[in-house]
Amino acid sequence: MKKKRRIFAAAAWTAISLCAASAADDWVSRAKWIGYDDGKSVVPPEAPSRANKKEERFYLQAVYLRKDFQAGSVAKAILRVTAEGEMVPFLNGKRVATEYFTPGWTEYPTRLYFREYDVTAEVRAGANTLGVILGDGWFRGNLALFGQNHYGKVIRARMELEIEGKDGTKSWVDTDGTWRASTGPILRGDHLSGETYDARLEMPGWCMPGFNAGNWRPVNVGGAAFEPKTIERHPGPPIKIYTEIPAKMLSEPVPGVYIFDLGQNFAGFARLKVDEPAGTAVTLKFGEILNASETVYTDNLMSAYATDVFISQGGPQTWEPLFTYHGFRYVEVRGLTHKPGLTAITGIAIGSELKRTGGFACSDSLINWIYNALIWSQRSNYMEVPTDCPQRDERLGWCGDAQLVCRSALYNFDTRAFLKKWIIDIYDEQSPDGLFQKTAPCICNAGWAPGWADAGIIVPYELWRMTGDISVLRGRYAGMKKFLELSDKAMRKFLGPPRLSDEADWLFMGLCMPFTLVFIAYYAHDLDLMARMAEALGEKVEAGGYRSQFAEVKTAFRDRFVGACNTPDPWTPKWIGADSMTGYALSLSFSLLDSNECVWASERLAQIATGERDQMTGILGTREILPALADTGHREAAYKLLQRRTCPSFGWMADHGGTTLWEHWNGVMEPGRATNWKGKDNENLWDPGMNSFNHESFGSCVQWFYEGILGIAPEEPGFRKVRIRPMPGGGLTFAKGHYDSVRGRIAVEWHHEAGKFTLAVLLPPDTPATVYLPDGSVRAISGKGHFECAFN
Ligand code: BGC
Q1: I want to staple 350 with a disulfide (CB 3.0 to 4.6 A). Which of 268, 269, 753, 762 is the partner?
Q2: How far is the CA of 397 from the centre of ligand 1 (A)?
């Protein structure tokens, strides 16, 4: 790229360089890493503590960077930004985009993303100012329970404004040594810890032409923690505000301590409106439930301090943070000099920008509750990566949770770009021998977890199944093969004595299950999916190979786990997998049994599901159990389990104040007591910190609302052909819903009363469907159809 000379050179204004042409990706070589390393460190008013580990953390002030420049007449202006850290770009006093945590989270040394904005309307002929506020983010801030500085100790920004003049010339404003730096009102900004903002330190007009930056300092140029291997455009959606939630109730359980109830658990932050004397420090603490004393319960946040502090400059002010988010329903406000009104706090819900693609409602209020609770939990946890929870010091892209929920997620929202981006994260973390990690990005390599590692196979498969986009598979096929080769070797090893592990079916209640069973069941399932993907990719011979491997693994599974077995270990199965619900559910759902076995296994499963009320599946079994029952003639048992209200059940969550799905079936046992335990004898208490009230993982059952209750499913990938097989039951008098597939809307509405079943179906153009009615009749349709049959 040939650079032309500098043209403007006014005193306060540095010139910008001109050139005849530019390719967007060249910008990285022009712009330099800049930052400011002389900010002061600030300790939050209370040191965060973890039950077993007390430590102090030091926060550096957010960094403000600015540059004045001149522009001629502008035909087009594009701003490109990235950071090691996270950034909020400004142009001429205005925030460029209301997005959060830019440029997102990746395995930074391997891959860093940039965002690109069209700012043509914002750049004026004449004087302009480009600026950025730079914070810690995932890069330098607290990351899960591993503390600060995970990726690096210094933060840097890299930006370029490319301007195309009306005369056809191009010019750039790049980050370089001509920029100036300062600290400002943001004393602390951290995802887990919160934000401290001292409004007395505001610098009005700091990103406007004419601002006196006389006491700003030179920037540090270079010195980034590392140079990532790739810097490329972000392929996924940005994090944005999707709704504002007004406070519903205000109480004062202790004089001067105000509790705002927003009525909904979610991820985001609070907007604060106050009118306080200068220097008043207002503290905001966030929590999901209340203590018995009506103050905010924070034991389940672990070391996440989750506290914002606003220091007033005097007079009426409105403030919201830039560099933090919390998982909460309640905000505890302290430090005000007078009683606030309800409007002093507004909840601001943020998450990756996702369009709704599905809808569901039926006559059963509990089933509707489960559906809506997942919508909120998914919104709260699709935050750049699919996190487990938004409140405690974890918030990681746990692969098990996400692979389990991804089909439900794909029905609910357009998650195509989000999941494609996350698949890149999964594959960036694949080990050289083929293993997929438990979390992506992976910040602590914790070994092999069946059901978690398999996300590398299952998530691309689900994306292809729902969208028909074969490109998702093409680039990943070699990586998948490698993982299956490693699984084959591991299978031989795991076929020794079974290990007992919580992760076998994380968060089960009642009977545990051998780890080996989950490993082999998932390995078989992966082979089954791989055979279908190989076929679709035209790899017919390999597809055949995977089918025979599936048959072999299925035999090994049946030999080891099905029926009476004489091995001496205590986890010898009585029938299947220690007689746990998940053992049956996985075997049935992954087609690991022969037809006779299916009959008795499903009967036994229905018996446990409806009879043994202290048992419940963990996260792996919860996705499989409803189809496993319903597809083997036990539809009423599936409904009964779903509609259960005693603990453990979804009904228990709904009846005990849940507005999102909980991590534990028994997260709250009595109001104000977030007790939870494993097993029926109240033994083995969980750490109270490990008790999230906003986990999406149990929401995997929602795929059955679409595919079972409504009966919408792809008969061919991408819904080229549709299957409609509604499953009335559970006393439901109606169910209706839709899915906006890549081909258009598929809608179903059925009514079931007095032995009569009526069904209306609407299909996209050129999309045939097979309709299976509950009386056993089958019809082929296209366009739309109305059906009636007798059914009890
Ligand atoms: C997370 C889970 C995750 C599990 C696996 C937990 O701490 O919250 O959602 O799947 O760990 O070990």
Answers
A1: 268
A2: 9
Q: Which residues contact 500 (CB under 8 A, 6 or more apart)?
A: 512, 514, 515, 571
Distance (Å, whole) CA 616 – CA 637? 13
pLDDT at 8: 26
> For the whole model, what pTM was predicted?
0.93
The pLDDT tens digits of the residues spanning 445-455 come to 778 889 999 99
Nearest CA to ligand 1 atom 6: 388
Residue 521 · residue 458 · CB < 8 Å: no
Q: At residue 509, does pLDDT exceed 50?
A: yes
Angle at the Cα of 710 (from 706 to 713), degrees rounded to 5? 55
Annotation marks residue 394 as catalytic: yes
Cβ(105)–Cβ(441) below 8 Å: yes
Considering the candidates 663, 696, 707, 749, report the single residue annotated as catalytic.
663
Strand partners, 102: 87
List the residue whose alpha carbon is closest to atom 2 of ligand 1.
Answer: 388
318 Cα: distance to centroid of ligand 1 (angstroms): 37
* Active-site residue, 663 included: yes
Out of 394, 462, 696, 749, the active site residue is 394
49: phi then psi, degrees, rounded to nearest 5:
-135, 150
H helix or E strand, kind and range, residue 559 = helix 540-561
Under 8 Å between Cβ of 152 and 226 = yes
Tokens representing 424 are 């890149």
The alpha carbon of 453 and the centre of ligand 1 are apart by a number of angstroms equal to: 13
d(Cα 227, Cα 702) in Å, to the nearest integer? Answer: 42
Q: How many CB atoms are closer than 10 A to CB 389?
A: 29
Ligand 1 neighbourhood includes 389 CB (under 6 angstroms): yes
Residue 4 tokens, joined: 């032309």
Predicted local distance difference test score (pLDDT) of residue 565:
47
End-to-end distance of the chain based on CA atoms, in angstroms?
A: 74
d(CA 317, CA 336): 13
How many A from CA of 535 to the centre of ligand 1?
34
Give every CB contact of residue 349 below 8 A, 6+ residues apart in sequence: 241, 242, 243, 244, 245, 266, 267, 268, 379, 380
